[in-house]
Amino acid sequence: MAKLLFLPLCLPTPNLSFKLKLKLKPQQFCVRCCDPNDEATNKRLSKQSSWETKDSEGRDYLYRLGKEADNMNIAVGQRAGIIDHLFVGHFLGKDSDIVFDYRQKVTRSFQYLQGDYYIAPLFMDKVACHIVKNYISHTLTAKVPLILGIWGGKGQGKTFQTELIFRAMGLEPVIMSAGELESENAGEPGRLIRERYRTASRVVQNQGKMSCLMINDIDAGLGRFGFTQMTVNNQIVVGTLMNLCDNPNRVSVGQDWRESDVTNRIPIIVTGNDLSTIYAPLIRDGRMDKFYWQPNREDILNIVQRMYEKDGISRDEVEKIVNTFPNQALDFYGALRSRTYDKSILKWIDDIGGAENFASNFLKRKKDKNLPVFIPPEQTTEALLESGYSLLKEQELIMETKLSKEYMKNIED
């Protein structure tokens, strides 16, 4: 098919006998046909360029990349055979950059975890063993479950302990939450899981670092509680996870299959409070290895001691606090320490000018105006115990009052 080529054409100014002169620009454009086999028309960008390299079906790299993308106009932003620097970089936004999706930093590096924390040996053994088993599964003659389900009581440090292990092992995981397991678009959460899984695989392949996929509070997104509704996305997410367990090296995000598209096996770790609410075939032993985390007294004492170590609280004082508030989750002792800051923060607010003037003095202050120095409170056993009794009182008040019964008379016990 002939191509259209625009060439400049000079036209002579016509001699007009009437007074009105017609003014024409010295150059106008006309259209002529050109031979598609013309050497000038089919000039390559570079002899070493791979952009125009054709595959076995005669299609170049950009065509294949656009076909694999979910939206050719947004995610790719290029057309086959056309390379324009206007569509790359900051001129029209990074959404037009064909490699933008691969530049995004979606992994977690845990730089915020500064300090020395205690990792329970039993927890470390279970998580590390699961990760290593999946990385060397091709050398084992045994069936290795892809998913590790860590479950247990609320506030026992399941996620935090896992992140500490990731930092200790040098992993860069891809982390999801239960809120991402539902969407107004059918199929979107399942696709997101597959994309995150493939992203973790690219971390291993491109960066030479170990990675994994972690889903926090999975029972909150997939669990069945009472008469909660089962949605299409719930079914697709469960089916996606089951498919990953059964075939972890072939993961599609909707593009055409290629024989060379083999994904590295990536271990998956999920946390939850009650795995019995999840679809039973997903949590069967061949797909998911389960680990019940309930820290014993020694684990609690060691974790709390590391928590209060910078405050100068001794081991005996930590034991006194734990004995005073038994049967509490680990996050209780963290909230207890946070409550001790309340008086110091209120004093700091008064020093600024009070709560009425806080916004203007804090957010709209002049550059040369310094705020009063915040002095953190001195942590003592008495102050920690006082905060603990206050938290305990709030817990009991919530359980005893139950205002929902007052507002909804037909509610069952």
TrEMBL record:
Protein's UniProt name: Ribulose bisphosphate carboxylase/oxygenase activase, chloroplastic
Domain ATPase AAA-type core: 150-294
CC per GO annotation: chloroplast stroma
Top-rank lineage group of the source organism: Eukaryota
Gene Ontology molecular-function annotations: ATP binding; ATP hydrolysis activity; ribulose-1,5-bisphosphate carboxylase/oxygenase activator activity
Subcellular location(s) of the protein: Plastid, Chloroplast stroma
Record's function text: Activation of RuBisCO (ribulose-1,5-bisphosphate carboxylase/oxygenase; EC 4.1.1.39) involves the ATP-dependent carboxylation of the epsilon-amino group of lysine leading to a carbamate structure.
InterPro entries: ATPase_AAA_core, P-loop_NTPase, RCA-like, RuBisCO_activase_AAA_helical
Main location: plastid
Pfam families cross-referenced by the UniProt entry: AAA, RuBisCO_activase_AAA_helical
Record-stated family: Belongs to the RuBisCO activase family.
Keywords: ATP-binding, Chloroplast, Nucleotide-binding, Plastid
Ribulose bisphosphate carboxylase/oxygenase activase AAA helical domain: residues covered: 297-395
UniProt source species: Vicia faba
Signal sequence extent: none
